[in-house]
Amino acid sequence: MSRKPYNDFLEQSAGFLANRMARRNVLVEDYVELIADLHAEGQEARQVDLAARLGVAQPTVAKMLARLTTEGFVARKPYRGIFLTELGQKLAQDVKHRHEIVENFLKALGVSPQNATIDAEGIEHFVGEETLAAFERFLKQSKEG
Fold first, then answer.
1. Which residues are CB-contacts of 51 (< 8 A; sequence separation ≥ 6)?
2. CATH node for 7-144
3. pTM of the shown model
């Protein structure tokens, strides 16, 4: 077994770090995106709604909402549900934008709309900025060509 050059180890380490960071943010992004979706549908975002849509128990949602509140993404108003702060709205927009790019890219590759939506939900959290930009360029070129 040969040893990898030093730079390969740095690249590998950077990949692992990026993956760990993305994994840590997946739940935050999912919750913020769902809250924004509920509001866009004209619905309130309540703990019970989030639990039902995410398929988790209400105590799980309560714990995450406490985290989101502490980190400044949401504000909770008694008897009025959950609202995104300016920071939360920005994150929701960014996540939605990434999701749309990934979903459209997958569809352009011939993935069925249903599977593209499902797969984009996972990929959107892990795709790097350079790759996302390449997806966008591909989509733009596909429309122009």
1. 57, 58, 60, 61
2. 1.10.10.10
3. 0.79
